[in-house]
Amino acid sequence: MELLIWGGAAVSLAGLAALVWCILRVWTVRRAGASEEALRQVVQKVVPLNTGALFLSVIGLMMVVVGILLS
User: Which of 2, 22, 30, 31 could bond 50 through an S-S bridge, CB–CB 3.0 to 4.6 Å?
Assistant: First the structure.
């Protein structure tokens, strides 16, 4: 069960890293003074990645909880 806990922590951290990347991507484009249309295009590309990163974080946290409950 220890492997499940550490694996879940790694998956959750990978999701968190992807979330930080999504935030930084939009933030840099916004600070660069891009047009509204350019910003909208970047956000549309980042939203699926952001959703996937949230899903990855949730799955990782679920793995940690299940590992704790089973140990």
Answer: 22
| DSSP per position, 31-71 | HTT--HHHHHHHHHHHHHHHHHHHHHHHHHHHHHHHHHHH-
44 is written with which tokens? 């549309």
- Cα 55 to Cα 36, 51, 62, 69, 70: the distances in Å are 28, 6, 10, 21, 22
* Residue numbers of the chain with a pLDDT score lower than 70: none
Structure tokens at 59: 């799955």
Q: How many CA atoms lie within 13 A of 45 on its CB side?
A: 9
Task: Convert the pLDDT of each residue in 9-28 to its tens digit.
Answer: 999 999 999 999 999 999 99
Domain spans of the chain, in order of start = 2-70
Listed residue (7, 9, 12) closest to 57, CA to CA: 12
